[in-house]
Amino acid sequence: MAEKKMKKILIIGATSAIAEATARLWAARGAALFLGGRRAERLETIAADLRVRGAASVDCFAMDACDAAAHETMLRAAEKALGGLDVTLIAHGSLPDQKACEASVELTLKEIDTNALSVIALATRLAERFEKQGSGTLAVISSVAGDRGRQSNYVYGAAKGMVSLFLQGLRNRLARKGVQVVTIKPGFVDTPMTAAFPKGALWAKPETIARGIVRAVERGADEVYLPGFWRIIMLVIRHIPERVFKRMAL
Q: What is the C-alpha to C-alpha distance for residues 209 and 234, in angstroms, rounded to an integer?
């Protein structure tokens, strides 16, 4: 398959380590970028770096992705700055404290809002846009955690599982409309968000995940596990019988 030229790219959650690494790859290919994220100063710092790396243009929009009322304003600003949209990467999220969530309904719902509902709201708006124009790629970072609920992170996993299932339906709806929906499922990634976790052989760098995202978008993938060995790991985990799985400390 010939490589797709990605020119007009919106990145939401652009200050995350994975998003920044992906933006650098697209910048080196001369893409025009629009960055959305909470921290205005950090966005501007990233934008300056991307311009040096070869981006055709870089614009920024500071917003909290959980503020659904701001989504439409941000999307219109991106369309105006870029002259349309070819690709959107939704990359924002948080890693909740599972024990704290177990003790707080409010925190549990907040984390589900951050990791699922805000993503679904944005994906719904973007799907409508891409469907009307008859083209576009919507790439969304979910997680291997959404493949099966585990006691150590089931609030996060439930949110990511919701996103993955929503994207399945969206992909089914838009497949005949010229729109590509890419579900990205990273495993363990060494980022500031996971700085306190002990690292091992299964951990990947953001740059590794970024290369996988760019490849997936270019080849029109439906769902990718990053790194690829997570597909096999999660296949095994999904097929452990429940009577055995519920006794496991995972």
A: 17
Averaged pLDDT score across all residues of the chain = 95
Between CA 16 and CA 194 the distance in angstroms is 12
Q: Coil, helix or strand for 15?
A: coil
Nearest to 35 by CA among 48, 138, 140: 48
Query: Which residues, including other chains, have CB under 8 Å from residue 238's CB and lie 6 or more apart?
Result: 147, 148
Token pair for 198: 């002990």
Q: Percent of the chain having pLDDT more than 90?
A: 91
pLDDT of residue 197: 81
Residue 3 has pLDDT above 70, yes or no: no
**Cis peptide leading into residue 227 (ω within 30°):** yes
Mean pLDDT of 106-115: 98
**Whole-angstrom Cα distance, residue 153 to residue 159?**
10
